[in-house]
Structures are given as C-alpha cells and as structure tokens.
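ok so i was messing around last nite and threw this chain in just to see what happens. nothing serious, just curious
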Amino acid sequence: MNPHIPASRSSVRRALTGSSFGTRLFLALTAVVIGCAVSAWLVASALAPGIFHDHLGQAGIDHNSSQAAHVEEAFTWAIILAWGLAVAIAVLLALAVSWYITRRVQRSLTAVTTSTAQIAAGRYDTRVSSPGLGREFDELAVTVNELARRLDATETTRRRMLADLGHEMRTPIATLDSYLEALDDGVRTLDDDTRQVLRSATHRLGRLAQDITAVSRAEEHLTRIRPVPTTTDALITTAVDAAREQYDNKGVVLHSRIDDSVAVTVDPDRLGQVLGNLLDNALRHTPEGGTVTVTSTVLDDRVEITVSDTGEGIAPAHLDHLFDRFYRADAARDRRHGGSGIGLTITRALVEAHRGRIRAHSDGMGQGACFTVELPVARQ
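result:
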C-alpha cells in the first residue's frame, strides 16, 4: 500500500474542512454532474455496440464485410460526436446552474452568519432580509429576526429592571441611613415612631426581594401547582368576593357574568392569585365611577375568563411587553400607583403552568383594557 495515500487523503480532508459551504456544495454538484456524464457514456458504450451489431445481422449485412465496416465507423463517429457534444453542453449548463445556486446559497448563509455575529456582539437592531430561496430559508430569516427582537426586548427590560431596582432601593436605604445617622448623633431617639419608620423601610426592601424571588420562581415553573377539580363559577365567585370591598371603597363597579360554568382541573389558590392580580391591576387603572367586568365563555375544549375594564387603556406599543418582568407602561408612576411591574409576569407564569395562555387587548388610551385567561376544560 502506498504510504502517501493516507497523507493525501488527510490533506484533502483538511482542505475541505477549511473551505466554505458554497465551495463544498459546488464541488459536490460538480462531482454529481461529472459522475452522471461518465455513467451515461459507459452505459452507451456498453449497450450501443451490441444493439448495433444485432440490427446489422437482422438487415442481412455481414459483420466482416467492407459495407459493415463503413457503417460501423459512421455509427462510432456519430456516437462520439453527438454524445460528446451533448455531454459537454449538459455538463457546462449543469455547472453554470450549480455555480448560480451555490452563489445564492452562500450569499444567504453569509448574510445570516454576519447578522448573528452582530446580534452576538449586542447589535439587536440587526435584521436579516428574506433570501428568496424557499420556505426553509425564509423561516430561518424570520427566526433570526425574532431572536434579535426578543433579545432586544430582554436587554431593554434588563436595563429597566436595574434602573427600577436602583430607584426602588434608593428610598428605603436613604431612610435607613438617615435615621441611623440621626440615632448616632443623638438627634433622634429609638422611640416607637422611629422604630416604625425603620421597620417600614426594611419591610419595603424585604418586599422587593420577595418580588424578585417570586417572579424568578414563577417564570422557572418552580412554583408548586396542586391541581384539583373545580369549576369556573367557583373560581370567579371567590375572586370577585375577595376584591369586592376594595372596589366599593374606590367607587368602581365590579360585575361578574358566567355564561356557562365548566369543570377545570387547576390549583384554586394559584388561579385565585391570577384573578386577584388581574382584578388589582384593573382597579388600579380604573377611575372612580368606572366598571370592571369578569366573564366566562366556553370555546370547545377551552374556557376563557376575561377581566375587562373601562379605565385608562393601554397604548399599542406596550401590549407586547405587559408581561415582561418589571415592565411598567407608565414609567413615571411610582410603585405605590404603578406597581412593581412583576404582577402580570407572575400571572403569565402561573397561567402557563396550568397549560393555559393569557393575552391582553386594548383599543388605545382611554378605551379600557381586557385581559383574557384561556384554560383547558377538564375531561369528563
């Protein structure tokens, strides 16, 4: 065995490994075209002479005659010229088409590679245009663009979260620092009022830490769900009764309309938390004299529980981000009015843990908002 053969194969393999996908594709298509041409030539060379001589015999022409020799020579040259020209043209056309396709594919892959590298470098506004090479490449472009959009939204939310955390922590920390300094200087004494202020500041920090932990556990599905059979009527009635006093105190009318109560298998406490968050959110954004309505509608094997209000409404630009952690449609509001920005995030995580979906809709500012929870109906 020639010892240089493995080395040459290794060199070829290394050369192919370092080459681009377009080069590999073009070489593969070239090999296929040449292989097809050689195969066609071999098949013609193997079959044509036998068929030719068979027909000479049927025509009564002696194979050894000068007439047969001239006919065979003419046939041979005709085969060589016709097949050679046809194969050459076919190979050239196939190579041209292969080169064109390879260039298109290579250009599209280069664009995707460049875009993903830019996205990895933090340029989340990068987008890939559709290459027009078929459904799979179009789906690839759409997927890359969606990835960039979500990373952009995540980065925006992360920055907002850090800003919110800094803002939320600044006030209680400043309060603790000033009161402790006042105690050290003797300006204040550790009386009941001072204890209350210090305790309130520490409770606020503790509540913020609990919020962060709660949203992380909920999003990672670490919140334990204990599903039991119940009905939509029971869920809605319990949630509405629990929120009734708060609504009465603010002067907001709370209605419930259950078209058809159906059986569901859910965790009543967690679904009560979901409806409670939605009712609190609706109350927060509905002025005195407004109305909040809770409805239940059955759609085949799903049931929809909707909480709609006549309040401030939601701008279209905010609808896609309402369930992002620490997102607040109105960044100017403080926590007391706008919430910490995690209630809807926890709500979505709990709904999805029940194999359900939640969506928000609003016709715009001043047009109210509608939150719909979709859950699977229990199988009988």
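not much to say yet. The domain at 140-219 is CATH 1.10.287.130 (Helix Hairpins).
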